[in-house]
Amino acid sequence: MSKTPRKIIIDTDPGQDDAAALFLALGSPIELDLLGVTTVAGNVPLPLTSKNARIVCEWANAADTKVFAGCDTPMKRPLVTAEHVHGKTGLDGPDLLPDPKMALQDQHAVDFIIDTLRREPAGTVTLCTLGPLTNIGTAFQNAPDIIERVQEIVMMGGAYFEVGNITPAAEFNIYVDPEAADIVFKSGIRIVMMPLDVTHKALTTKPRIQAMRDLGTPAGIAMAEMLDFFERFDIEKYGSEGGPLHDPCTIAYLLKPDLFQGRLVNVMIETQSDLTLGMTVADYWGVTDRAPNAMFMTEIDADAFFTLLLERLARL
Ligand code: BDR
Ligand code: CA
């Protein structure tokens, strides 16, 4: 008997690796029912992330996807962006980015998240977050009744042993809006975290990118061109063989959880210290009596992950 697809909302700030996550989800309609894509300011400002999300949907032949623009600034701080990683557009790589034809939905992303969680049966909608947690934190603050209705949050964010990529202590998504992250980590919802500790093991290599290009489809070619650009930054920075493909780890977990291994631990967010703002303080060794609130992933079967991504990219 076939299972009903799992209902998800993807909250995102595209970003080349966000694009990979959207492709993976859009190529997996049997397993995932994508109720909507909500955009947030992060890698680049909101008008660009909202445009980029639609460009990616069109590359994926999925122009009927509902895209909602959300918050343009973090809950309590000025926005920090990452053009140094993703380029001026956020999706640098292809020579020319098309102008999307599909329109944004009229509703604000935060209202869409609230309405959807109130409308769907409790415990049936998963939030999959690929950017700063501003939309989710704001929705939980404005409508606390929805918190207990969330099935699970699967997020790309944080780091512990691998420490920071935007400051010495903090990972970008959490650093940009630590107050929103704090709300989410204190919500009591089951959280699955894809921190840098695991995403730095999902490296784009030349053969992996070439296999995407060889698909010869708009999505495959665009993905390869974006990743050619994206990996140069991390290869220079870390001396690694490729760039870490962070965000699709979340979707891959929804499709094949066995690709990942981790530990259920307590994670708290630093919101006070200038030095370590946005740090995800993980009690990995159980040295406190704080209750576990997050499945902190550290291991990935990278070959199987890239095989899955390629297989789903080929369906678009
Ligand atoms: C995260 O930050 C962004 O630059 C990426 O899209 C990813 O979500 C990695 O720290
Ligand atoms: Ca992202």
Strand ordering within the main sheet: 3-2-1-4-5-6-10-7
Q: What is the makeup of the main sheet? A: 8 strands, mixed
How would you spell out the order of helices and strands?
EHEHEHHEHEHHEHHHHEEEEH
The gross shape turns out to be globular
Q: Overall pLDDT, averaged?
A: 96
Number of helices: 12
Would you tell me the structural class of the helices and strands? Answer: alpha/beta
State the helicity in percent bands. 25-40%
**First-last Cα distance:** 25 Å
Uncertain spans? none
Strand coverage percent? 15-25%
Estimated radius of gyration = 18 Å
Instruction: List the ligand species.
Output: beta-D-ribofuranose, calcium ion
Can you count the beta strands? Answer: 10
Give the gist of this structure.
This protein has 316 residues and is α/β, with parallel strands linked by helices. The chain contains twelve helices and ten strands.
Structure, explained:
This protein has 316 residues and is α/β, with parallel strands linked by helices. 36% of the residues lie in helices and 17% in strands. The protein is built from twelve helices and ten strands. The chain has helices spanning 16-26, 46-59, 83-86, 109-119, 134-142, 172-176, 178-185, 196-199, 206-213, 218-238, 248-255, 302-313, and strands at residues 6-12, 32-39, 67-69, 125-129, 150-156, 191-194, 260-265, 267-269, 280-282, 294-300. It has an eight-stranded mixed beta sheet, with helices on both faces. The chain has a two-stranded antiparallel ribbon with strand order 8-9. Strand 2, helix 2 (46-59) and strand 3 form a beta-alpha-beta unit. Helix 4 (109-119) packs across helix 5 (134-142) and helix 5 crosses helix 7. The longest helix is centred in the C-terminal third of the chain and has 21 residues, at 218-238. Calcium ion is lined by residues 13, 15, 18, 43, 130-131, 247.
